[in-house]
Please model this.
Amino acid sequence: MGLDEIQFRLQLSGGRGGQVLIFNGRGTTSAQAQRIANTAAVLYIELARTDAKNRIVLDRDRLRTAAVLARQEKNRTERALERFNKGMPVSEPSAYFKGRAERTIGVRRDLEEGRKQEAGLVTQLSSLESQLKSLPKEVINGYTLTKNPVIDGYQAEITALKAQRKVKLLDYQEDSPEVQTLDEEIDAKEKAIQEARKAAFSQGSKSVGRNPDFTGTQSSIFQLRTSLASLRKTIAETEGLLADLEKEQSQLSDKQFQFLTLRTSFEAAAEADKTAQSGLIAATIKEATGQPYVRVLDWGRKPDSPLSPKPLLNTILSVFLGLFLGIGLALLAEYFSHKPQPEVFRFEEPLPALPMVGGVPLLGTAPIGNSDHLSARDEDRLREIGYWLAHRESGEPVPVRLLLGVRSDDRAATLAVQLANILGQDGVRVAVEEVDNQSIGRLPALLASLAAAGNDLILLSGPAVWNVRTVGPLEKIAGGLVLVASPDTPVEESVTRARRLLTNGYTPHFHGVVAAEELPALPAMDLKMEAKP
Model:
């Protein structure tokens, strides 16, 4: 194999920098093969360096073209943005758009505040008018002081004028004629109040006269009406101003969109131009200083021993292959074997493990309340608790569960009824019996009859755990109890309290504990609808 043929093969291989080139060459002798491999490595180094230089030149040319296009696009978008800015009446369109939008928002906020004040004044005026109807106009009084109503009227007018001045300031300056006129009126009203306060009260006589409450209420109504009229006038002016501003905003929306589009295009073009110029500088530096890094990982050498066969490797592979094949054939033979298998009892649906609370299984959280308004999630929780209680092994008698409350027996009875209703929907027959101290004697016969009737579960609703004398015999007859914890007490505290009360000469057997959860009350409207005939 000559040098020309080796170089031709390297060119066909398509090797590039950053890759690993594997070149296979054959020779008549090992020395010839070694020489061919080393010669190929040297030729590939030269080929890679030449190729890297060519790619750097190509990348630089492409970057130059991209830089020219980016500069042209930047100039075009800059001229378009300048033409748009010249067509606007302001030097900075973005600040102008922002200022007009803030002005519109401020006027809209003032209008909403004025409408709230109007609603408050209307409500207050209605209340005073109703109060005025219930007051007598005249009362028997002694020497009294009558308040001058003119002062309150002037004060109401001053309040209205100040509100108008606040609205005027949105469009006029402090020294404008419109604002100065309002200031002069306010000063005149304040001087009139000072003159009226010299005779703010007058002394009456002990005779039938006007009711001061009636007069005060009437004066307040007059003031409120004056303030309301002034406020409504201000609201009308603000509505007109807001309408003009909103119309202006609708006209400026297209220009604002055009301005944002032009500015975004200019910024993108400027960024592209900056990137292209940076890349062009980097390409120039790389062309001047960069050299491709090509390294021979393994020079050609004469082999010291034959490459194949490898006895040790073949032996290890044979051992592992035979082991895996034997295990697979054994499993396959066992799978297709027809020998009788020993019977092993298994649950059809094994129950998962329950969490423990103080050494007592926590069956779950049960909603206690109106069963007609249970959600699907609440029914699923009750159904899970019911299946826990109804679970029994093959050949076992019907399970009898005694449900007890910590403080009262109402929750236990309600839970028993809810479990019976939920399990009854699934076809599980559940018998519910409420037992007490008087029914202990006939309880064994009752349980036998209920079991003979084909029930799948018997729930006994007993008294609270504090009634130890009754709970003890009932628990022994039922074979264990289920504690219904109160929703206002932690479950651990309920279990501890029940265990402390019942540990009186014997150790109680707990099937589990159910954490009660109060259902929310029904809405008032639903209750009214149900109460209708």
Remarks:
- The CA atoms of residues 490 and 527 lie 32 Å apart.
- The first strand starts at residue 138 and ends at 141.
- DSSP finds 13 helices and eleven strands in the chain.
- Residues 14-18, 342-350, 522-533 have pLDDT under 50 and may be disordered.
